[in-house]
């Protein structure tokens, strides 16, 4: 197979599998590292480049034209947020986005929320 065919297969199958359900994920640093590692592993394997070749990810992406999967997911989440904000106020996703529960939070550091990741301000 040619390099272009392998990259098309990557875009159709591997990226779709990695991005499945990502519009509502809360991406932590470790999750981002794992997603990038999985993408690079697939690309290296499909193009026959070994880690022993010590080729940097940035130069490898430049050669193949592949975009960083984490950046794609963040763009996808921004599109989803814009879509939800355009919805009518009675739609469930819009209500869930603006929901504020009553009561007190648990002791300790608050968990990272989806809205925090997108830097939403009320």
Textual characterization of the structure:
The protein is mainly α and 122 residues long. The chain has one domain (3-103, 111-117). It contains 6 helices and no strands. It has helices at 3-19, 29-47, 57-64, 69-86, 92-97, 114-117. α1 runs antiparallel to α2. The longest helix is centred in the N-terminal third of the chain and has 19 residues, at 29-47.
Mean pLDDT, nearest integer? 82
Characterize the main sheet. none
Task: Determine the N-to-C terminus distance.
Answer: 51 Å
How many distinct domains?
1
Order of helices and strands: HHHHHH
The structural class is mainly alpha
Portion of residues within helices: 55-70%
**Envelope shape:** elongated
**Which band does the percent of strand residues land in?**
under 5%
Q: Please count the helical segments.
A: 6
Gyration radius (Cα, Å) is 19 Å
* Low-pLDDT runs: none
Number of strands: 0
Describe how the helices and strands are arranged.
Layout: H1 3-19, H2 29-47, H3 57-64, H4 69-86, H5 92-97, H6 114-117
How would you sum up this structure in a few lines?
This protein has helices spanning 3-19, 29-47, 57-64, 69-86, 92-97, 114-117. With 122 residues, it is mainly α.
């Amino acid at each position: 197979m040619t390099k272009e065919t392998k990259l098309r297969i990557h875009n159709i199958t591997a990226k779709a599998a990695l991005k499945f359900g990502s519009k509502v994920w809360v991406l932590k640093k470790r999750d981002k590292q794992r997603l990038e590692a999985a993408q690079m592993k697939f690309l290296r394997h499909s193009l026959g480049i070994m880690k022993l070749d010590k080729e940097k990810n940035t130069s490898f992406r430049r050669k193949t034209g592949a975009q960083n999967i984490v950046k794609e997911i963040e763009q996808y989440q921004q599109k989803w947020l814009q879509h939800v904000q355009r919805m009518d106020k009675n739609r469930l996703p819009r209500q869930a986005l603006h929901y504020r529960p009553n009561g007190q939070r648990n002791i300790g550091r608050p968990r990272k929320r989806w809205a925090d990741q997108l830097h939403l301000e009320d």
